[in-house]
Amino acid sequence: MSPSRLATRAGIYAFLGLFAFLSVFPFLWMIVGMTNRTGDIILGRFTLGDAFLENARNFFEQADAPLVFWNSAKIAILGTIATLAVSSIAGYGFEIFRSPARERIYGVLLLTIMIPFAVLMIPLFVIMGKLGLINTHIAVILPTVASGFVVFYFRQATKAFPSELRDAARVDGLKEWQIFLYIYVPTMRSTYAAAFVIVFMTAWNNYLWPLIVLQTNDKKTITLAISSLASAYYPDYGVVMVGALVATLPTLFVFFIMQRQFVQGMLGSVK
Amino acid sequence: MSALTLTDIRKSYGAVEILKGIDLDVATGEFVVFVGPSGCGKSTLLRLIAGLDEISAGTMAIGGVRMNEVDPSRRGLAMVFQSYALYPHMTVEQNMGFALRFAGMPKAEIRSRVLDAARVLDLEPLLKRKPRALSGGQRQRVAIGRAIVRQPKLFLFDEPLSNLDAELRVHMRIEIAKLHRRLGVTTIYVTHDQVEAMTLADRIVVLRAGAVEQIGSPLALYDDPDNLFVAGFIGSPKMNLLPAVGAATPMGAPALRIAALGDALIPLPPGAPKVAEGAPVTSGIRPEQFDPAGPVGLDLTVDIVEHLGGTNHVHARKGDAPPIVVDVREGRTLRPGDPITVRFDPAALHLFGTDGKRLRA
């Protein structure tokens, strides 16, 4: 290899290495932090300590971990299933069924992706109040169910769904809803898996909206619990880091078990 | 009784009329092929018969019963698609039995029908495989098997061989012909490949721009085309269509002058259609109708030779005129630039008027 190519290659590796480090650093910091006491963390200690068990015990005592974990899981799983069901039907419908108003309605739907959540927050809060849903998990789930982005994602993916499969199913005697359920859903499994990962992670990490609508401790999610630990008068960073780890594990788990389908689904959606 | 009757079938999308009044009567057990260039409406017509699109006007009947508004699954037909349209998440067996399962047929009956079809199509070892583990030809056989198990009154094939390579296409073409002979089910087959149409059909329906150009047996269309389009479409290589003008021999007998053949005076045989002197016509002669024993001979120059082994397609021209294609069996040694004398019988000429219609005596 010539010196100039070697230098180019070295430059590329240095660049990639830097960004890899920047990506991985928060995780490393989390792992190191959860084994150290607050004082050491503030002093910038970056070696593993011996305080993990103490931090973990404190976290489970202070945060009512099983309850907040359960709340988060319930919201994320139910929210994801509802979002996939509603948005995939919408995406399929937008792509398959023709109507003169289709593209205009779809355009309006895409516009909703552009609206910042901060703008929607107050109207949504008022709506939830009128529906009597404040401080319920349904109030957290409901606004995310018809997601403009997920509808868009499913419409794009449906472009790869062969129209002849639908024709064959019609000749075989299936009605439209049966075609969706028995042919489309199993055929688009990878698309659903990829969407599941994205929607689940968003729902699990959701912070601002639950902070507004969930008002009692028994309803709070894990992100809110960690936040309240971090915003205490004397925050215990070791405990916060244990909470961050506990909060990260489910999303990592979901991602790794669906990794293959996730990649296939993302490829399939842009092909 | 007719298996399928189409009466003035029309299909429009908005102001655009795709099918402009199709009439057709298909007898029970008949193999009818719709053929025509891309965009002629042949697949649309098949979709209307299947019930996958709505008929804008006209009547469609299967076995004498009006079917315009009947659901596709209740028309008693089965369809084979160009891309096979196998359900990717089901095994071959599940694919073949899916429609029957949906119709509520007992499991034992479904299994028996699937196994029968698998035996006929040599699919038995593949029953537990998913479509992605099959070759193109195997997938096509599964698609046909899926149609067979329904024991339909009418088979619809939509360009089923287009996705296969040339060798497999010939093989599957023969398989479909055998299958039709064995099952005797009325079949409508859409293709743009006129060789498929010629080899499979009892009758061919030639379509162009949403209208029927001619209906007839393959040989009737080949020997006796009604118009320029059919003459040019049926036959491979296609008929030589050469502009000509009416003329008369010094004795006053009717004749033609064909520019592409050097404006030589070609006397028309008795019984040929009348062409007024100076009237423009199109004369057509098939490459294989040139005959070394023909009474009229012309000296041409070889432009290109396509050696096919058994025969040779020689593209030859007179001066700067467009080349004509001649089928020459003994032409292996011919090379571009060689002189060649081609002979033919003027009785073999097909004559077409300026409106494209065949001139008949």
TrEMBL record, chain A:
GO terms for cellular component: plasma membrane. It is found in: Cell membrane. GO terms for biological process: transmembrane transport. Coiled coil: none annotated. Keywords: Cell membrane, Membrane, Transmembrane, Transmembrane helix, Transport. It is a multi-pass membrane protein. InterPro entries: MetI-like (IPR000515), MetI-like_sf (IPR035906). This is Lactose/L-arabinose transport system permease protein.
TrEMBL record, chain B:
It comes from the Bacteria. It is a peripheral membrane protein. SMART domains: AAA. The keyword Signal does not apply. GO terms for molecular function: ABC-type maltose transporter activity; ATP binding; ATP hydrolysis activity. Gene3D superfamilies: 2.40.50.100, Nucleic acid-binding proteins, P-loop containing nucleotide triphosphate hydrolases. Belongs to the ABC transporter superfamily. It is found in: Cell inner membrane. This is Lactose/L-arabinose transport system ATP-binding protein. GO terms for cellular component: ATP-binding cassette (ABC) transporter complex, substrate-binding subunit-containing; maltose transport complex. InterPro entries: AAA+_ATPase, ABC_transporter-like_ATP-bd, ABC_transporter-like_CS, ABC_transpr_MalK-like, ABC_transpr_MalK/UgpC-like, Mo/tungstate-bd_C_term_dom, NA-bd_OB-fold, P-loop_NTPase. Pfam families: ABC_tran, TOBE_2. Residues 4-234 form the ABC transporter domain. The lineage of its organism: Bacteria, Pseudomonadati, Pseudomonadota, Alphaproteobacteria, Hyphomicrobiales. Keywords: ATP-binding, Nucleotide-binding, Transport.
